[in-house]
Design brief:
By secondary structure, this protein is mainly alpha-helical. The chain has seven helices and no strands. The radius of gyration is 20 Å and the shape is elongated.
Length: 140
Protein backbone atom coordinates (compact mmCIF):
# COMPACT_ATOMS: atom_id res chain seq x y z
CA UNK A 1 0.00 0.00 0.00
CA UNK A 2 1.11 3.57 -0.59
CA UNK A 3 2.30 5.69 2.29
CA UNK A 4 -0.35 6.42 4.86
CA UNK A 5 -1.57 10.00 5.26
CA UNK A 6 -3.36 11.64 8.21
CA UNK A 7 -6.58 11.79 6.17
CA UNK A 8 -6.43 8.03 5.51
CA UNK A 9 -5.90 7.30 9.21
CA UNK A 10 -8.79 9.59 10.24
CA UNK A 11 -11.11 7.91 7.73
CA UNK A 12 -10.12 4.42 8.88
CA UNK A 13 -10.69 5.32 12.55
CA UNK A 14 -14.12 6.82 11.75
CA UNK A 15 -15.10 3.74 9.75
CA UNK A 16 -13.95 1.54 12.64
CA UNK A 17 -16.16 3.50 15.03
CA UNK A 18 -19.09 3.10 12.62
CA UNK A 19 -18.50 -0.66 12.35
CA UNK A 20 -18.39 -1.16 16.11
CA UNK A 21 -21.51 0.98 16.53
CA UNK A 22 -23.43 -1.11 13.97
CA UNK A 23 -22.57 -4.51 15.45
CA UNK A 24 -25.34 -6.19 17.45
CA UNK A 25 -25.28 -5.50 21.15
CA UNK A 26 -23.82 -8.04 23.53
CA UNK A 27 -26.49 -9.75 25.63
CA UNK A 28 -26.01 -11.84 28.76
CA UNK A 29 -25.69 -15.56 28.21
CA UNK A 30 -29.01 -17.36 28.33
CA UNK A 31 -30.96 -14.30 27.17
CA UNK A 32 -33.87 -15.06 24.89
CA UNK A 33 -37.29 -13.77 24.01
CA UNK A 34 -40.27 -16.12 24.07
CA UNK A 35 -42.54 -13.74 22.18
CA UNK A 36 -42.95 -14.41 18.48
CA UNK A 37 -41.64 -11.74 16.12
CA UNK A 38 -44.46 -9.51 14.93
CA UNK A 39 -44.64 -8.93 11.20
CA UNK A 40 -46.40 -5.75 10.18
CA UNK A 41 -48.82 -6.02 7.31
CA UNK A 42 -48.97 -3.47 4.52
CA UNK A 43 -52.01 -1.83 6.08
CA UNK A 44 -50.08 -1.30 9.34
CA UNK A 45 -47.28 0.48 7.51
CA UNK A 46 -49.35 2.85 5.38
CA UNK A 47 -48.46 6.44 6.18
CA UNK A 48 -45.38 5.58 8.21
CA UNK A 49 -41.85 6.62 7.42
CA UNK A 50 -39.84 3.79 5.89
CA UNK A 51 -37.17 2.37 8.18
CA UNK A 52 -33.88 2.14 6.43
CA UNK A 53 -31.27 -0.10 7.98
CA UNK A 54 -27.65 -0.07 7.13
CA UNK A 55 -26.27 -3.42 6.09
CA UNK A 56 -24.35 -5.27 8.75
CA UNK A 57 -20.59 -4.95 8.39
CA UNK A 58 -18.85 -7.78 6.58
CA UNK A 59 -15.85 -9.77 7.78
CA UNK A 60 -13.41 -7.48 5.95
CA UNK A 61 -14.93 -4.38 7.58
CA UNK A 62 -14.67 -5.96 11.02
CA UNK A 63 -11.05 -7.00 10.45
CA UNK A 64 -10.10 -3.50 9.30
CA UNK A 65 -11.90 -2.00 12.29
CA UNK A 66 -10.04 -4.30 14.68
CA UNK A 67 -6.74 -3.36 13.04
CA UNK A 68 -7.54 0.34 13.38
CA UNK A 69 -8.42 -0.17 17.03
CA UNK A 70 -4.98 -1.71 17.60
CA UNK A 71 -3.40 1.48 16.25
CA UNK A 72 -4.62 3.26 19.38
CA UNK A 73 -1.91 1.43 21.37
CA UNK A 74 0.78 3.65 19.85
CA UNK A 75 -0.15 7.13 21.13
CA UNK A 76 -0.28 7.96 24.82
CA UNK A 77 -3.46 6.66 26.53
CA UNK A 78 -4.94 10.16 26.90
CA UNK A 79 -4.30 10.94 23.24
CA UNK A 80 -5.74 7.57 22.20
CA UNK A 81 -8.92 8.36 24.13
CA UNK A 82 -9.13 11.72 22.37
CA UNK A 83 -8.66 10.04 18.98
CA UNK A 84 -11.42 7.52 19.70
CA UNK A 85 -13.84 10.20 20.89
CA UNK A 86 -13.25 12.17 17.68
CA UNK A 87 -13.61 9.00 15.59
CA UNK A 88 -17.06 8.60 17.16
CA UNK A 89 -17.83 12.15 15.95
CA UNK A 90 -18.13 13.61 19.42
CA UNK A 91 -18.00 17.44 19.30
CA UNK A 92 -14.92 19.23 20.56
CA UNK A 93 -16.63 21.04 23.43
CA UNK A 94 -17.74 17.91 25.36
CA UNK A 95 -14.32 16.34 24.71
CA UNK A 96 -12.57 19.38 26.17
CA UNK A 97 -14.85 19.32 29.23
CA UNK A 98 -14.34 15.58 29.71
CA UNK A 99 -10.54 15.72 29.40
CA UNK A 100 -10.15 19.09 31.13
CA UNK A 101 -8.14 20.72 28.34
CA UNK A 102 -8.57 23.73 26.08
CA UNK A 103 -9.75 23.48 22.49
CA UNK A 104 -6.30 24.37 21.13
CA UNK A 105 -4.63 21.75 23.30
CA UNK A 106 -7.19 19.13 22.27
CA UNK A 107 -6.63 19.88 18.59
CA UNK A 108 -2.84 19.79 18.98
CA UNK A 109 -2.96 16.45 20.87
CA UNK A 110 -5.36 15.02 18.28
CA UNK A 111 -3.02 16.01 15.43
CA UNK A 112 -0.08 14.57 17.35
CA UNK A 113 -1.91 11.25 17.92
CA UNK A 114 -2.78 10.98 14.23
CA UNK A 115 0.83 11.84 13.34
CA UNK A 116 2.19 9.10 15.63
CA UNK A 117 -0.06 6.52 13.95
CA UNK A 118 0.94 7.73 10.47
CA UNK A 119 4.63 7.49 11.34
CA UNK A 120 4.26 3.98 12.74
CA UNK A 121 2.19 2.76 9.76
CA UNK A 122 4.80 4.13 7.36
CA UNK A 123 7.54 2.23 9.21
CA UNK A 124 9.23 5.29 10.69
CA UNK A 125 10.34 5.85 14.24
CA UNK A 126 8.54 8.53 16.17
CA UNK A 127 11.15 11.14 17.14
CA UNK A 128 11.50 11.29 20.91
CA UNK A 129 13.31 14.64 21.18
CA UNK A 130 11.24 16.71 18.76
CA UNK A 131 8.37 19.06 19.45
CA UNK A 132 4.81 18.07 18.71
CA UNK A 133 4.62 20.77 16.02
CA UNK A 134 7.57 19.23 14.15
CA UNK A 135 6.01 15.76 14.16
CA UNK A 136 2.62 17.05 12.96
CA UNK A 137 4.24 18.95 10.07
CA UNK A 138 6.46 16.01 9.10
CA UNK A 139 3.56 13.51 9.09
CA UNK A 140 1.23 15.69 7.04
Amino acid sequence: MADWTPIMVEDRLERAADVFRSLPEVKPQGYFNAWPEYFHSFADQVGQEPRMRRPKPGPRDITQAEDALLWLRWPEPGDARLLWLRANRKPWKPICWELGISRATANRRWQYGIAVIVWRLNGKRVPSRRSIDYIVRAAG
